[in-house]
Design goal:
Elements: H1 13-21, E1 26-35, E2 43-52, E3 55-60, E4 72-76, E5 80-84, E6 86-91, H2 107-118, H3 124-140, E7 143-150, H4 156-169, E8 172-177, H5 189-200, E9 207-213, H6 229-237, E10 242-248, H7 249-262, E11 269-275, H8 279-288, E12 291-294, H9 296-302, H10 311-317, E13 321-323, H11 335-355, H12 367-381, E14 399-403, H13 415-422, E15 428-433, E16 436-440, E17 443-444, H14 449-466
Parallel strand pairs: 1-4, 1-5, 6-7, 7-8, 8-9, 9-10, 10-11, 11-12, 12-13
Antiparallel strand pairs: 1-2, 2-3, 5-14, 14-15, 15-16, 16-17
Length: about 475
């Protein structure tokens, strides 16, 4: 008896070709459960989403008239949940050739291998390949926007390679250009940052730039990497927003409080990790309107400070925050893992306080709350909330279809629960970024995946040879 593998409903090759051939195409997704993440729109089941060109044109229970004139390409989305594309608020994408190389590393070991040994020997091809692979991996798992904290920018040419990788991938990239921790680099990093902004990314397109820096936590945080009042002023003078990584502990807290007292913080600053900060530092962030990017699995796995991501601290202070993957050399690629870890962490710690008799114990976070962090929160943290993060008409059409009838999700009983608790990357059926299909019927829309695979392996081997390291996949 032969086994037949059915084609995804309404998502055949001919439909893909019609959409891909027309950048201004009207595409009508029909009959899905739609989670808009826009309180004014609410959720719909069933619901329709109309995309015109790069933008979301309408979301309603029935947009059948939009296809009545035959001008819309209709996609049968029944059996799917449509959600905004996930937004990763911080990932170090140049490292992706070394996915899961360090499954047992702590923070010190990660810094030793990835920054002390490998980062200084990356050339332009290695930067391109690592970033391109990261971008496609993100798209494959439903992440349409990534804040790429690129702390291996040794020259303008390195930056150009990173930007080309994001442009070629079709993903939405926010490149936070930052100086390396170790090794040689171009001393004109600031001039290169301005050149990136003015020559490579002058507009508000699919790929944008931010300044990447850090508070003072270790001796390696100095020079252009260390955030100061003067550095903040420089970034703002050139219209560049700021993202700060490695925001840990007492030293970072003191630095944040000092900047707050100088009156130089603002809503254009996003703080990554924020692990084990003092109450005074949290107050300075909240008072300034700053955003936060949490790295729940990173804090836990690598042992950042006490290992507890400050989810409740951010909630208690009313700070907007998103979720992030951080480092694929140690951690998972997808946002489903991050949502589940964040949800379980908050609920566990809240339940612990409740069980201990704490009358001030917080409420248990609902599944919808963590989905909001993976979409709305990330978009705000990355400075792209006006473009994506919700299925609001007028925003760019960054969205994904989650297969709710796959064997691990069937039957669809709760749309939010299915996306947050049931689904994983294999259930991401189709992905659109600014109206362009990037994954379709379970497969990436890419012209040369075999070529990328070859380049990734060659890059990995070159880099390991440069540091005289023999790879043992069983070690």
């Amino acid at each position: 008896m032969s086994t037949q593998i059915p084609m995804s409903r309404g998502r055949d090759a001919e439909t893909l070709e019609r959409i891909a051939a027309d950048p201004g195409a009207r595409v009508l997704f029909r009959g899905a459960a739609v989670l808009t993440m826009d309180p004014a729109l609410g959720d719909l089941a069933p619901g329709d989403v109309l995309v015109e060109g790069t933008r979301i044109a309408a979301v309603a229970a029935d947009l059948g008239e939009a296809a009545g004139d035959g001008q819309a390409i209709v996609v049968d989305a029944s059996g799917c949940v449509i959600v905004p594309g996930f937004v990763d608020a911080h990932r170090h994408c140049w490292q992706t050739q070394f996915r899961r190389l360090l499954p047992d590393a702590d923070l010190g070991r990660y810094l030793e291998i990835m920054h002390g040994s490998l980062a200084p020997v990356y050339d332009l091809e290695d930067m391109y390949v690592g970033n391109h692979l990261a971008a496609l991996g993100a798209l494959d798992s439903g992440v349409t926007c990534v804040l790429d904290f690129s702390h291996n920018m040794r020259s303008f040419d390195h930056a150009d390679a990173v930007i080309r990788a994001w442009e070629d991938s079709g993903a939405r990239g926010v490149v936070a250009s930052s100086v390396p921790l170790f090794g040689d680099r171009d001393p004109d990093w600031r001039a290169n940052l301005v050149r990136i902004k003015e020559e490579r990314l002058p507009g508000d397109g699919r790929v944008t730039v931010r300044m990447g820096a850090a508070p003072e936590i270790l001796p390696v945080v100095h020079g252009d990497l260390k955030i100061t009042a003067e550095a903040l002023a420089f970034a703002r003078e050139h219209g560049i927003e700021i993202t700060l990584d490695a925001v840990f502990g007492d030293n970072a807290s003191a630095h944040i409080v000092a900047l707050g007292k100088e009156g130089v913080l603002g809503p254009d600053v996003t703080w990554i990790h924020c692990t084990n900060l003092t109450d005074e530092a949290w107050a300075a962030i909240a008072d300034s309107g700053g955003k936060v990017a949490l790295a729940v699995t990173s804090d836990q796995q690598l042992g950042c400070e006490d290992g507890i991501a400050p989810i409740q601290k951010a909630f208690d202070r009313g700070v907007d925050f998103g979720l992030s993957v951080d480092v694929e050399c140690c951690l998972a690629t997808d946002m489903f893992s991050q949502m589940q870890a964040a949800l379980n962490s908050q609920r566990m710690l809240a339940a612990q306080r409740r069980f201990a008799g704490d009358e001030a114990a917080p409420e248990l976070m609902p599944a919808r709350g963590v989905l909001e962090l993976a979409t709305v929160g990330g978009a705000k943290a990355n400075g792209v909330w006006e473009r994506c993060g919700s299925l609001t008409p007028g925003k760019d059409a960054d969205l994904l279809l989650v297969d709710a009838e796959a064997i691990n999700n069937l039957p669809l009983n709760n749309a939010v629960g299915t996306v947050v608790l049931g689904a994983d990357a294999r259930n991401v059926d189709s992905v659109f970024v600014a109206g362009r299909p990037r994954k379709w019927a379970g497969l990436l829309v890419s012209s040369d995946l075999p070529g990328l695979r070859r380049r990734v392996l060659e890059s990995r081997e070159r880099l390991l040879e440069r540091i005289d390291h023999d790879l043992d996949v069983l070690a």
